[in-house]
Design brief:
The chain has 233 residues and is mostly beta strands. The protein has a domain of 106 residues: Immunoglobulins (Immunoglobulin-like), CATH 2.60.40.10. 8% of the residues lie in helices and 48% in strands. The strands form 6 sheets. Strands 9-15-14-11-12 form a 5-stranded mixed β-sheet, with no helix packed on it. Strands 2, 17, 20 and 21 form a 4-stranded mixed β-sheet that branches. It has a 4-stranded antiparallel β-sheet with strand order 16-5-18-19, with no helix packed on it. A hairpin with a 6-residue loop joins β14 and β15. The chain is globular, with a radius of gyration of 20 Å.
Length: 233
């Protein structure tokens, strides 16, 4: 980045900061941390299987609160930043693949950027009907036979996309869609990384499908790494 370009970016950063919005630039700092859970684990929910029990089993155990025994880290939590404008880029947007496999959506929880392509696949030897809604409005409703081709669809709205299989009601999933690239999903240890945030003050929000949301304010410097942790107790 040239000196002029860098100066212009800082000017825009300061200008937009006064309105509570931060403009993303090419340089920035990393925000990292861990989302943990120290409460009592809820009892896994047992869901009966009424279709294709020979493949899916007679019942399914669902435990949405998945915690690492060593770190107490909580997996499959979506972490994002509020009030940041996405930088302009010509880079192609990636696919976000959700697979019907072993009678479950994998990943069960995910995140994507506005304009990404959602691709739904069926790897099971049975029919699945993937039904995706944004609120009460259907975004995608497609039946896929075993061995059928993947179904792509462009993500054109932000917000929570909920997944259901109309044939197997115990199958659920979630996809949060953002209009910027500053989001992550915690790994098996509850760790997340948000790279290259521009300097500014942000609200960082974490979202879990059953535990709800937490948020904290964080001040990000021009360069370096900031650590911010969250705990569901």
């Amino acid at each position: 980045m040239s000196l002029f370009s860098h100066g212009m970016a800082i000017f825009l950063l300061v200008l937009l900061s006064q309105t509570g919005i931060v403009l993303a630039v090419e340089e920035g700092s990393n925000v990292t941390g861990i989302v943990s859970f120290h409460g009592t684990l809820p009892v896994a929910k047992t869901m009966p299987v009424t279709e294709n029990a020979e493949i899916c089993g007679k019942d399914v155990q669902i435990q949405t609160v998945q915690v690492d025994a060593q770190t107490s880290g909580l997996r499959q939590v979506v972490v994002s930043v509020n009030h940041v404008l996405s930088p302009t880029t010509d880079m192609p947007l990636p696919k976000r693949i959700v697979v019907n496999t072993n009678c479950a959506f994998v990943p069960r929880v995910g995140a994507a950027r506005l304009g990404d392509t959602l691709e739904v696949q069926n790897l099971d030897p049975i029919l699945h009907n993937t039904h995706v809604k944004i609120g009460q409005k259907t975004f995608l409703n497609v039946a896929q036979l075993a061995g059928s081709r993947p179904i792509p669809k462009t993500l054109r709205r932000t917000g929570l996309h909920t997944f259901r299989c109309d044939k197997h009601t115990f199958m659920v999933g979630s996809l949060l869609v953002f209009d910027h690239p500053y989001f992550a999903v915690t790994d098996e240890f509850g760790v997340f990384h948000l790279p290259r945030l521009p300097a500014g003050t942000y609200t960082v929000v974490v979202w879990h499908e059953t535990l709800g949301s937490l948020e904290q304010e964080v001040i990000v410097p021009l360069q370096g790494t900031v650590t911010i942790n969250f705990d569901y107790s």
